[in-house]
Amino acid sequence: MPPCLDVYALSPLRDRETIESFVARYVSVVDPLLDAEVLVLPLDASDDLPVDEWDVIPVVSVDGIVDLGLSSPRRVFTVHLRAASPRCGAILCFACNDEVTFGVSVDDPLDSDEAMATATSVLHELCEDTAASCGWVIWERQPSSHPHRDRPWDAHGVRATYARVDS
Fold it and tell me: Can you tell me the distance from the alpha carbon of 85 to that of 101, in angstroms, rounded to the nearest whole number?
């Protein structure tokens, strides 16, 4: 896969309707799963358990992923999905604090202004679609399962940000 700008939206809406809406808009309907299994933080484990000690759970469908993510507000895992064209990736990260980070990757092999403009547009759409509290664009970076601790929107290399301003 070529270098991509990763566009993320952190949303408090960890519910079926929001997740299925994201999937319908940004995930390929043909063979959407890139992973046959996901690493999942055990519910009774500490949040800082090394990832190589997480449970391995097989996944067979996007519905199964959604069910797993909604099975507990503390269920923590990240799954990569095949994106709907023209995007080059989609990510769901179920965080430890009952939030979801929704991600879409925008192809940008040449670090172009056009790709950045597209990523910025996707950032605003994604944040509005998911009622995100914040969003960010960054080169090739995984989302955090502990977003409020790690503050990925403040990380070195962030290219654009979004913050919800409620009136």
Answer: 20
Backbone angles phi, psi at 107, to 5 degrees: -60, 130
Contact 147/44 with Cβ under 8 angstroms? no
CA end-to-end span of the chain: 41
Query: Measured between alpha carbons, how far is residue 156 from residues 25, 38, 59, 131, 151 in Å?
Result: 29, 28, 33, 25, 11
Residue range 91-133, pLDDT digits in tens: 999 999 899 999 999 999 888 999 999 999 999 999 999 999 9
pLDDT digits (tens, 9 = 90+) for 52-88: 999 999 988 999 999 999 999 889 999 999 999 899 9
Helix runs in 27-146, H state only: 62-70, 113-129
Asked if 82 and 103 count as a contact pair (C-beta separation under 8 A), the reply is: no
3-state DSSP assignment of residue 150: helix
> What letter represents residue 98's amino acid?
D
41, 121, 163 from 97: Cα distances, Å: 13, 27, 19
Single pTM value for the model: 0.93
